[in-house]
Write a structure and sequence with these properties.
Largest sheet: 7 strands, mixed
Low-confidence stretches: 390-395
Bound molecules: pyridoxal-5'-phosphate
Mean pLDDT: 95
Distance between the termini: 30 Å
Strand order of the largest sheet: 2-8-7-6-5-3-4
Helix content: 25-40%
Number of strands: 12
Order of helices and strands: EHHEHEHEHEHEEEHHEEHEHHEH
Strand content: 5-15%
Structural class: alpha/beta
Radius of gyration: 22 Å
Length: about 400
């Protein structure tokens, strides 16, 4: 087994290291406090209180009310639940508007919506990864149930103007859900000021555990649950709560809120330094996606003349972890649908690597990565028969 101490982890959009404060808070709920939160006696009620505290902490991070938070099993479930709810609310509205760059948690679900008789309109993006808001508005019909559009792209970090989309959806009287799984914990959020109907988040993207997420449901929005059974989560998500993980998500949210400003600056500086060094010292390197309206932690780079799968293998030998596009697609040979939608030429799309920084990265990680990457790119370019790319200088 390769352990976290040995590696240079530049793949924080895939998942993040658990914060020790999160582990400390969740452990007693796996051991001593195993009561069922629905039980009426103190041993159960104290667990209910821990869940309530987690709800308050997540709400504080999102700038909304605790009652608007529904705990789920992951970000995927949260996204699915929001769209399913919209489709169940009105049989005459079975149309979904989405974008060409969504995560498979939305894309594949939309394919299923179509197979089940609904219709889906997919709105494209430009070369920088931006949505055409007028096209989005034109896609809305009287049968539209919901717009589902991500806030930050997991591959490029490019941000959609969620506030503007929420306002447009309100004006057009359609629901709006955003997949904020890459945004929460990385950007300040105040949902109380906005009109969006629902938002998905996932604990493992903000130094919490895998297998737990949340759905924000605006208190003024109707909601039909996907999971039917007990009355947990105020009838919005049945099933005995994953207590330890929910407690952990609450702590992760509290830590994220406390660290947001400092981390935003520190992580952004690391990402910018890393990106600038590679652009300067490795010829024919390009940034994919808009560099301004972007998450502070992500850079998606194409190194012309290489195949990203080969680079991943060589980086792996140096214990450097990053992604070729999104982690879900690694190893599948399929090129990125995100870069495809941005019309990045196929050769550059196949040469793209995503590096994403996080709380536990250090300047030493950046230095080590900058020692590893340029020679690997040189080697791969030398091996590539088509390559006429100049050799990168050493950084
Ligand atoms: N949406 C986005 C943008 C993501 O990055 C991810 C995870 O990679 C998901 C959805 C799925 O979240 P989860 O792994 O919690 O199901």
């Amino acid at each position: 087994m390769v352990s976290g101490e040995q590696i240079i982890y530049l793949d924080n959009n895939a998942t993040t290291e658990l914060d020790p404060a999160v582990v400390e808070e969740m452990l007693p709920f796996l051991t001593r406090y195993y009561g069922n939160p629905s039980s009426g006696y103190t041993f159960g009620r104290q667990v209910r209180q821990a869940i309530d505290l987690a709800r308050e902490r997540v709400a504080a991070l999102l700038g909304c009310e605790p009652g608007e938070i529904v705990f789920t099993s992951c970000g995927t479930e949260s996204n699915n639940a929001a769209v399913n709810s919209a489709l169940r609310l009105d049989p005459n509205r079975q149309h979904v508007v989405t974008t060409a760059v969504e995560h498979s948690a939305t894309r594949r679900h939309c394919e299923t919506v179509e197979k089940c008789g609904g219709s889906v309109t997919v709105v494209g993006v430009d070369g920088a990864g931006h949505l055409d808001l007028e096209e989005l508005e034109r896609a809305i019909t009287p049968r539209t149930a919901i717009i589902t559009a991500m806030w930050a792209n997991n591959e490029t970090g490019v941000l959609f103007p969620v506030e503007q989309i929420a306002e447009m959806a309100r004006r057009k009287r359609v629901l709006f859900h955003t997949d904020a799984i890459q945004t929460v914990g990385k950007m300040p959020i105040r949902l109380a000021d906005w009109t969006l109907n629902s938002l998905a988040l996932s604990a493992h993207k903000l130094h919490g555990p895998k297998g737990v997420g949340a759905l924000y449901v605006n208190k003024r929005s109707a909601f039909k649950p996907s999971m039917i059974g007990g009355s947990q989560e105020k009838n919005r998500r049945a099933g005995t709560e994953n207590v330890a993980s929910i407690v952990a998500l609450g702590k992760a949210a509290e830590c994220a809120a406390a660290a947001l400003t400092e981390e935003n600056t520190r992580v952004r500086a690391m990402r910018d330094r890393f990106e600038a060094a590679l652009l300067e010292h490795v010829s024919e390197t390009f940034v994919n996606g808009d560099r301004k309206a972007r998450l502070p932690n992500t850079t998606n780079l194409s190194f012309a003349g290489i195949e990203s799968d080969a680079a991943l293998m060589m980086f792996d030998r140096h214990q450097l972890c990053c992604s070729a596009g999104s982690a879900c697609r690694t190893g599948s040979m399929e090129t990125s649908h995100v870069l495809g939608a941005m019309k990045v030429p196929a050769q550059l799309a196949r040469a793209s690597m995503r590096f994403s920084f996080g709380r536990f990265n250090t300047d030493a990680d950046v230095e080590r990565a900058l020692e590893i990457i340029p020679p690997v790119i040189t080697k791969l370019r030398a091996l590539s028969p088509a390559s006429a790319i100049r050799e990168p200088a050493t950084v």
